[in-house]
Every structure is written in structure tokens, then in C-alpha cells.
């Protein structure tokens, strides 16, 4: 006789940062929660692993800073509960040509969101950052206090542990191949590749680069989320200068606007090395990764040489790590009810476009609000609806250039 299927209040599919934060939030609200992951927990095949992620509130779009600030509070709350740190604070520095539209939008966005911001020239930059960063004459620096580094694998583990403490059930190596309406309960039936079935009153789908494929297979709906393979690079700091580039010395997390969007973090996870990658990558399915550099390194080498001189060895990176992005045409998130036959029973969170990790805690809260209450009071979701692509295939209109470049 077949054993009865256990019924959960919420089933979360995908245990990266978004799914783990969601499971923590739903279990915190006394919902019987099941978190499913297709691979081992804390695997390196998606977007939530590695040694560091930037947190910053300086965005050209004025709807992200509020989310970052709310997320920062939730990061601190979680750290307090778990008893260790995953978030290390330092200033955020954005640099670029003074006439760059995106950088000007960053300044405007900070002002609209009451985020203290200072615009500095190359001379002030020299004084403030120990002569470490050189700017061309026509470039400016934009300094905000809301910056820092998050340890991603440690952070995902933290939220999974807190979810377990709240009574959540976690199951890895469980690839989901189908989601359908449960005719017996009126909820949702989730089926694993191995034949196991799970019944939930509600379901949240946060499967990163697998989102488009899974949703298309379930409903026929195409959400324009393109997986990109990206590569993170670490570069060697000149001997004797290693401590200058650390958080302890006040070195910032940074982003550079211009022809190529380049970002980086202070030396932290690998002493003597600094992380400086290009924000972009190669379109591919998650099963089609090369694990090799996805873009030409020439613009990056040139940028390092120009901005750090001989303080950072720009001849070649000494360490590389592969990661996946899930990019929407407008680089904005998808947070919405799936609709159709599922109505409000299935919520999707995806398309975080290489900049969502920092907002994992608030996204998890929003997704939990949607499945429990049917709405969220934390954020206006207008910019994150699936239907925005029906009106315009490019999604939300913006008056500045895309930050993610795809190298074909």
C-alpha cells in the first residue's frame, strides 16, 4: 500500500540564497516548510556559492536602495540569531566618467532615497584612499556608507540552519521535474525525478538559471531569463601593500561605470589577492558550462593597470571561479505569482541578474509574504511582474546603458 503523501504549508524549490531565505521566513511564521534542492546543499553549480558578494545601496534604479537597506537589517538580525558574522561592512565607491548616465542616476537615486552620498574628484580620491586608486581627469568618485562584503556559502548555510531551527524540513539531491495542481487537496503537487511526491498548500520556485526551463515545462509560460556563465577573477597585490587593500584599512567595495562594468571587493577571503571581475558573461544553459573565462581579459587588465598602477599585478589573474547569472532583458528581478491554473498558489523568484544576492533576505521575506498573505507591504512589485515583458519585450524602460554585457 502506497504511503500517504505528507502535506506541507509551503514547499520551496531551490536552496540557493533566495530559497533558503524564503524557507527561513515561512518557517519563522510557523508554516510547515519543505526546502528542496536538486543538487547537494551548498553546491557550486548555481549562483549562491563562492567567497564574497558585494552589498551596496548605490543603484541607478531608485527602487533597489530601499530593498538593500531593509535587507541590511535582516542580515544583521540573522547574524544575531546564528551567532557569527557573514556581512563585513566597508564603504562603497562607484567611479566613472562624470557624464556617465548610469553614474549620474546613482547619485540621483541616493538623494531620492536619503542615502548620504559624496561626489569626489581625483585629488580627493587620492587623499581619501591612500593614493591607491587613480582616476582620469574627467572621472568622479561617488562614496556611500552602505557597502560591504557578504560571505555567500556561509550565508546560505546560515539561513538553512535557522530554517531548521524553526522546524523546516530540508531535502537535497531532489530534482523537481513537475509541479501540478493537487486534485485531492486543492494545493500543489511537486514531483521529483526519482518519483517522490510532495504536497503543499503553496509553492515557491527559486531555481536560478533553471527557472526558464522549469516554468516552461510546467506551464508553457516563457519567462525571459537568460542563464549566463560568468567568471570571477582574483589578482595579486604587490608585496608590502597587501594590508592597504583590506576592509581593516577602509578599502571599499567598488564598481566602475563606463564601456565595461567592472566591480570588486577588498582583499578578504584570500590574503594578498583582490577580487576584480567584469559584470557579464556567456549565454548558456547551466548544463553547458565551460568552466573557463567567458570574456576577453584585455579590458580588465587595462582597467587594473590604469586604476591601480603597479600596486596590483595586471598581467594575469592568479585565481578564477565560475558562477552563473540569470539575466532578464532589463536586469530587474522577477517576483510574482505564476498565475494560470495555479493562481496565487505558486510564486516565482528569479532573474536576479548577477546583483540579487545582497537582497536575498528581503526577497525571501517578500516571497513568504506572497504565499502566506497574498501580498507584501515591504516593496512595490510593479517593476518585478512577469507581465511587464508582454507590453515590452525589453521590460522596464531605463535611460542608461545596460550593466551586464554578454560575450557570445
Automatic annotation (TrEMBL):
InterPro entries: FAD-dep_OxRdtase, FAD/NAD-bd_sf, MTOX. Residues 9-370 form the FAD dependent oxidoreductase domain. Keywords: FAD, Flavoprotein, Oxidoreductase. The keyword Flavoprotein applies. It holds the Pfam family DAO. One of its GO terms (molecular function) is flavin adenine dinucleotide binding. Its cofactor is FAD. It comes from the Eukaryota. Belongs to the MSOX/MTOX family. This is Sarcosine oxidase. It comes from Solanum tuberosum (Potato). The gene is LOC102581785.
